[in-house]
Specification:
Blueprint: E1 3-8, H1 15-27, E2 30-36, H2 47-57, E3 67-73, H3 77-83, E4 88-92, H4 96-112, E5 117-121, H5 132-140, H6 151-163
Parallel strand pairs: 1-2, 1-4, 2-3, 4-5
Bound molecules: 4'-phosphopantetheine.
The site of 4'-phosphopantetheine has 9 residues, from β1 and α4.
Length: 164
């Protein structure tokens, strides 16, 4: 039984994240999609909204034989991973520019907790430039984000924009 944690802010989840989760499903028996509760950041979507969005959009991907759970966590990722009895932390790497930061995190996490391995996965090329930050920026300035996030996410972003 291989259990992986896929941590992130997911504010909001993009098609790139979904692609990684679907690929991860081929490798692991269970994936916990773990949303970081970060009191230092002002998110677009609350933790509850992000959990709701995740459970909606995860229905649209192929789970193979993998169980996908959605949780949130605070504090050190490796402590959370140990508490959850996870073997692996999954991180998506898009371009070489991601690698340096991800390598630092992976090595720091290994130092803190050698029992947990970090696995880097590549999303499909079409998502190699997609990030939650860019999607939010483009959308808030009136740009098109079709195909970069699930339709329901775009819909919720539209609602947020009109609220604010
Ligand atoms: O999607 P993100 O925002 O790039 O995810 C970053 C995340 C959640 C993986 C990272 O910030 C994290 O692990 N935070 C938890 C605190 C922690 O363990 N920090 C030390 C990392 S070496």
């Amino acid at each position: 039984m291989r259990r992986a944690i896929y941590p992130g802010s997911f504010d909001p989840i993009t098609n790139g994240h979904l692609d990684i989760i679907e690929r991860g499903c081929k490798l692991f028996d269970e994936i916990i999609v773990a949303i970081l509760v970060n009191p230092n950041k002002q998110p677009l979507f609350s933790i509850e909204e992000r959990e709701e969005i995740l459970s909606e959009v995860l229905k649209t991907i192929n789970h193979y034989n993998c169980t996908i759970l959605i949780e949130d966590f605070q504090g050190l990722l490796v402590e959370y991973a140990v508490k959850k009895n996870a073997d692996v932390i999954v991180r998506g790497i898009r371009a070489v520019s991601d690698y340096e930061y991800e390598l630092q995190m992976a090595l720091m996490n290994r130092r803190l907790e050698p029992r947990i391995e970090t696995v880097f996965m590549m999303p499909a090329e079409e998502y190699s430039y997609v990030s939650s930050r860019l999607v939010k920026e483009v959308f808030s300035l009136g740009g098109k984000i079709e195909g970069l996030v699930p339709e329901s996410v775009e819909e919720r972003m539209r609602e947020k924009l009109h609220q604010g």
